[in-house]
Amino acid sequence: MQVKKTLIEIIRKINQMRCCPLFVVSISPKKKEKNVSETTENGPPSYPLIGSILSFNKNRHRLLHWYTELLRLSPSQTISIPLLGNRRTIVTTNPQNVEYILKTNFFNFPKGKPFTDLLGDLLGNGIFNVDGHSWSSQRKLASHEFSTRSLRSFAFEVLKDEVENRLVPVLSDAADVGMTLDLQDVLKRFAFDVVCKVSLGWDPDCLDLTRPVNPLAEAFDTAAEISARRATEPVYAVWKVKRVLNVGSERKLREAIRTVHVLISEIVRARKKSLEIGTGEEAKQDLLSRDTTSAAMTWLFWLLSENGDVERKLLEEVEPLISLGLGFEELKEMSYTKACLCEAMRLYPPVSWDSKHAANDDVLPDGTRVKKGDKVTYFPYGMGRMEKLWGKDWEEFKPNRWFESEPEGTRPVLKPVSPYKFPIFQAGPRVCVAKEMAFMQMKYVVGSVLSRFEIVPVNKDRPVFVPLLTAHMAGGLKVKLKSRSH
């Protein structure tokens, strides 16, 4: 008991330490600070034994911006961050490095045990969280399932029913009475309904806003948030000690995961009475992936409200197709809508970063030396903000950047963009098997909603981007809706 009290006191002191302004980052390739490692231009100041923990501590609540700032100063678009008690973290926005990690030397960059430790309690041995033979066998199964016409047709019918009979009526009711809605919350509820119907054959009816948040959705979101925050601990031992002692956030995580497992098991058992389905691991993965589409659409709706000319062009494409009834063929023609979605995800990627762990010593194409066990992170959020990749206008929301230059009077053609420059759906052997299905869902929802409603955000301040397992908008997207007259 005394040991437990002592460890809890240590954790408390570390947590207090994080709130102190310990160190102001000063990065200049022309200057060298005493006792600082030679390569300040390729990362933050690093000190013997403790590495860059002081800078990391100061910036742990703004890691996206901090990493991006450091990467802009790096000639190689790669930085190295050594931390106390951990192996180095190498962060890159260099597409050549990304291709090397995700494809060329794929087997030397598995998820690795440190990653699976972070998410193992939540995701278990599902495809998102494993390597080697287990990943390969699950990948083959998933690729087969997502390539079947029957699944695509079923998913589309579920999507259509949920949009027409639930999502649109909810938005119409809000528009009729002038009610403010959190569009991010509505889209998450919608996506949760769809994924549960498709993967579990179960209808949680989350779009009934008169009911409390579904306990499975609430527990999963809690577990996902706490699992993600483990990765921002400056000393990994902290969350591991908390898990052993079953205190604080780790106790809350354990309770949330227990709720997820119990509820999914109940659903699966009930479903098995009429149809034999999987173990439930794939359902947990689907619950994670549902947030990526809702996040992408939330940011797109906000960006469209700020860019009226883009919204008008999107409507010009969508409205004639809506009159025909959106089906597979009509969705394929929505190239401008797809460009808008890609541009929104460039600026606000649903997954801000993804990490692997080197199985052996290696050298990245830009010359960065990697030691066995190093965490190697490619960084889509930063990649979307690199002038070297997207030009001086990288900060602008410009869907036209996704098109080939075409003569006037012809239908614009989306140009091929390397997935290693835009790794939103990963790339190489681990590329998302549900990529096209995700675009189908997002196109259908965006077209159906925008053709019927004008979306007016209530808050005029710029939203805050929050990266967790999947990113979201802090505080949601509060909007008023106006029915469009036709």
UniProtKB/TrEMBL annotation:
Biological process terms in GO annotation: anther development; defense response to insect; fruit development; jasmonic acid metabolic process; pollen development; response to wounding; stigma development
Keywords: Heme, Iron, Metal-binding, Monooxygenase, Oxidoreductase
Pfam families listed in its UniProt record: p450 (PF00067)
Superkingdom of the organism of origin: Eukaryota
Binding site for heme: C432
SUPFAM superfamilies per UniProt: Cytochrome P450
GO cellular component: endoplasmic reticulum membrane
A single GO molecular function term of this UniProt record: heme binding
Known cofactor(s): heme
Record-linked PANTHER family: CYTOCHROME P450
Family: Belongs to the cytochrome P450 family.
Protein name: Cytochrome P450
The species this protein was found in: Eutrema salsugineum (Saltwater cress)
